[in-house]
């Protein structure tokens, strides 16, 4: 079977400007439960499954019930914030980039650390879902980012070869996952990590805008 041309993307901070919302609402929710946290504590953990991030931010020990309750509360607050912001959350140039890549014959996948319902909600609210061929969430795999499992699922669904496929993401965990999956890793500075952090994590190239992504891939 011939392989297809594809690009896989992260979601938060890469397609949608949700990183500040995520950091603020995680911080606010933890503080409301007496757990000290500031948004800056959250940024290095964005791009990882929420359960892993929460476990890094606070020692819940065996109190899984409390952690799940906090996650549920956080997700409710973020859901409302996403609803209020709507399509304005789409990062500059993202719609044009996706249209250009599709016109150039590339299939588009999203591989995210979000849960399935949360990813579906964000893509629907931002009116991006019709531009995406497949969505892989943490719910689809046993191990989320930075493990390569979800990247493998995305590649398989699109019939793409890892070594020929870019993964575009804004977090160091995105670069870790892409490299572990044998993909080409492209960092973008629109979300959680700085250029230096993305380069240190192994990005083959780092860009600042969505327009640069399509230009680099299509040229």
Q: Tags for this entry?
A:
DNA polymerase, domain 1, 219 residues, 10 helices, single chain, alpha/beta, 2 domains, 6-stranded parallel β-sheet, Rossmann fold, 6 strands
Word description of this protein:
The structure is a single chain. The chain has 219 residues and is α/β, with parallel strands linked by helices. It contains ten helices and six strands. Strands 3-2-1-4-5-6 form a six-stranded parallel β-sheet, sandwiched between helices. Helix 6 (116-125) links the parallel strand 2 (107-111) and strand 3. The longest helix is centred in the middle third of the chain and has 22 residues, at 64-85. It is globular. The model has no long low-confidence stretch (mean pLDDT 96).
Low-pLDDT parts are none
- CATH fold category name of the largest domain: Rossmann fold
* Mean pLDDT value: 96
- CATH class of the largest domain equals Alpha Beta
Which sequence of SSEs, written as H and E, runs from N to C?
EHHHHHEHEHEHEHEH
Full CATH superfamily name of the largest domain: HAD superfamily/HAD-like
Straight-line N-to-C gap: 26 Å
CATH architecture of the largest domain: 3-Layer(aba) Sandwich
Strand tally is 6
Q: Helix share of residues?
A: 40-55%
Q: What is the CA-based Rg, rounded?
A: 17 Å
The total number of structural domains is 2
Shape: globular
Largest sheet: 6 strands, parallel
Quick description:
With 219 residues, the protein is α/β, with parallel strands linked by helices. It has helices at residues 19-32, 39-42, 50-57, 64-85, 94-103, 116-125, 149-158, 172-180, 195-200, 210-218; strands at 6-9, 107-111, 134-136, 166-169, 184-188, 205-207.
């Amino acid at each position: 079977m011939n392989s297809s041309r594809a690009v896989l993307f992260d979601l938060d901070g890469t397609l949608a400007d949700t990183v500040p919302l995520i950091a603020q609402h995680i911080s606010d929710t933890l503080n409301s439960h007496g757990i000290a946290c500031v948004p800056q504590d959250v940024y290095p953990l964005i791009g990882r499954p929420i359960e892993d991030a929460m476990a890094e931010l606070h020692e819940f020990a065996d109190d899984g019930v409390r952690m799940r309750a906090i996650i549920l509360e956080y997700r409710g607050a973020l859901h409302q914030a996403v609803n209020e912001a709507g399509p304005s959350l789409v990062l500059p140039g993202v719609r044009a980039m996706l249209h250009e890549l599709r016109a150039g014959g590339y299939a588009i996948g999203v591989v995210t650390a979000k849960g399935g319902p949360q990813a579906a909600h964000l893509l629907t609210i931002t009116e991006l879902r019709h531009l995406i061929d497949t969505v892989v969430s943490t719910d689809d795999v046993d191990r989320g980012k930075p493990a390569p499992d979800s990247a493998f699922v995305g590649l398989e669904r699109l019939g793409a070869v890892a070594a020929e496929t870019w993964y575009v993401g804004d977090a160091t965990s995105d670069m870790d996952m892409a490299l572990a999956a044998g993909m080409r890793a492209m960092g973008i500075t629109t979300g959680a990590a700085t250029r230096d952090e993305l380069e240190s994590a192994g990005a083959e190239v780092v860009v600042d805008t969505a327009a640069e992504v399509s230009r680099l891939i299509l040229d």
